[in-house]
Amino acid sequence: MKTNRLKKNAATALAAVLAAVLLGWAPPGAAATMTAGVPAAAGAAAMPPAAPAFVSLDAAGARRLVAPAAHRAPTILALWSAECVHCKKNLALFAAMAQAEPGLRLITLAVEPAEPQLGAILDRFGVPGERFAYGDEAPERLAFAIDPDWRGELPRTLLFDGRGGATAVSGVLGEARVRELLGLGAAGGAAR
Description:
Blueprint: H1 2-23, E1 34-35, E2 38-39, E3 54-57, H2 59-65, E4 75-80, H3 85-100, E5 105-113, H4 116-124, E6 131-134, H5 139-146, E7 156-160, E8 166-170, H6 175-182
Parallel strand pairs: 3-6, 4-5, 5-6
Antiparallel strand pairs: 1-2, 4-7, 7-8
InterPro entries: Thioredoxin-like_sf, Thioredoxin_domain
Protein name: Thioredoxin domain-containing protein
Keywords: Signal
């Protein structure tokens, strides 16, 4: 009995140490000598910054997210799912635009519960910005809170011009159309 307890305690301690190393924990005062849990002297390269975590969305949060007054800068809210091929085309375009246009905000909303694969997809396309996913409420309730006129087709994009205007579009978008709906000028400069 005592041997089993010792094995269990040892396994728990080992799991804690492994988690600390893998998650980049370092004891207080050791930050200068550790990089992601690996001693800097070992020549370890710095780990890339962690991707933003997904926020689970409920109906009240969805209504706040789509309120035009909440967006004081040009903002793209991209609704997508892991299985939607056309969504990924939009995500790639939006990521490139957000990187080229410093004042442009990009927010993504996965129309499914958050899963690790979702973050990997966004990371693969270099998608910056806040990340939301459907929470525990009924998907139909969340969809209605996002856009009462939306029937679930994907990709769906809500574009906020930063001056109180908003437009919802279904389907794959081109850069010129996105710029027009956001009130941006031609590539490389804002026409606000």
